[in-house]
Write a structure and sequence with these properties.
Strand order of the largest sheet: 3-2-1-4-5-7-6
Structural class: alpha/beta
CATH architecture: 3-Layer(aba) Sandwich
Number of strands: 7
Strand content: 15-25%
Shape: globular
Bound molecules: S-adenosylmethionine
Distance between the termini: 62 Å
Largest sheet: 7 strands, mixed
């Protein structure tokens, strides 16, 4: 009885701290838990034998915030399920010089501009080391997408098609480059976290929303809305129009 009162108090106190001081959202809704859920589902759920798995792509590494959530989720998943973390690969795409110059209206936001959010590759590598993730499992694709997202880069990724993708690149133009690049290697069941969906107050012709709408209009598949995440971004799951796992030819 005493114990359960103490446990109830502890839970309530932790909830209070979480709500008022640490996060503005329930920890269960955190991005870390979202990543954890998909690592779990893709490795143990009903699609474990056919869907994509264990290749995390991040477009827009910035100061390593979303990456840290993924690294923590991976460490927790590997510990909870005795899963060898070396099965997980990470591919990181960034200029490591911050945002490019704003050239078109759809990218133009008061909080963004050339050089914003610049953090070096060494800064990100240090975060990876600190979380004890095996660095040899990480590929850095360094440079502005205009120069790096090309056929040669795609050929190098064929062995590791993405299973979980973060697109946190702010601009419409950068999101468009990312989606056009990645489209040929997408498999049904790949999940996306778009961090900047709400940046233009859901304006349909600005930012990431415009890029997603265009992707869904003219690709061989579609991004289908899944959930909101931590009050900022939104999550989608991709399916090819041609259902590649069908047994009927
Ligand atoms: C808001 S930051 C990402 C924040 C990061 N996800 C985090 O949580 O720390 C946006 C990132 O996108 C990158 N980026 C945007 N457009 C780019 C482009 N065209 N080429 C290369 N990097 C780009 C910037 O360099 C920047 O690091």
């Amino acid at each position: 009885m005493i114990q359960s009162a103490a446990a109830r108090f502890k839970r309530k106190f932790a909830g209070y701290l979480n709500t008022h001081f640490f996060n503005r959202y329930d920890a269960n809704e955190s991005l870390e838990n979202w990543f954890y859920h998909w690592l779990y589902f893709q490795n143990t759920g009903h699609a474990k034998d056919y869907g994509p798995k264990n290749c995390y792509y991040e477009f827009g590494t910035g100061w390593g915030g979303t990456l840290t959530s993924f690294l923590k989720a991976s460490a927790r998943f590997s510990k909870d399920y005795n899963f060898d973390i070396r099965n997980i690969k990470i591919v990181l795409f960034d200029s490591f010089e911050g945002l490019p110059e704003v050239k078109i209206a759809e990218d133009d936001h008061p909080a963004w501009g050339k050089g914003k959010f610049a953090h070096s590759k060494d800064y990100i590598a240090d975060i990876i080391h600190r979380h004890k993730f095996p660095i040899e499992q990480v590929t850095f694709i360094e440079g502005f997408y205009e120069n790096t997202l090309n056929d040669a880069a795609l050929a190098g990724l064929l062995k590791c098609p993405p299973s979980i993708i973060t697109v946190d690149v702010d601009y419409y133009s950068s999101t468009k480059l990312v989606m056009d690049f990645i489209r040929p290697i997408l498999k049904s069941g790949t999940v996306f976290y778009f961090d900047d969906i709400n940046s233009f107050f859901l304006h349909p012709e600005m930012g990431q929303i415009k890029a997603i709408t265009e992707f869904n209009q003219d690709s061989g598949g579609s991004l289908n809305w899944l959930t909101n995440a931590n009050f900022a971004g939104q999550c989608y799951i991709y399916t090819n129009r041609f259902w590649e796992y069908s047994s009927i030819k």
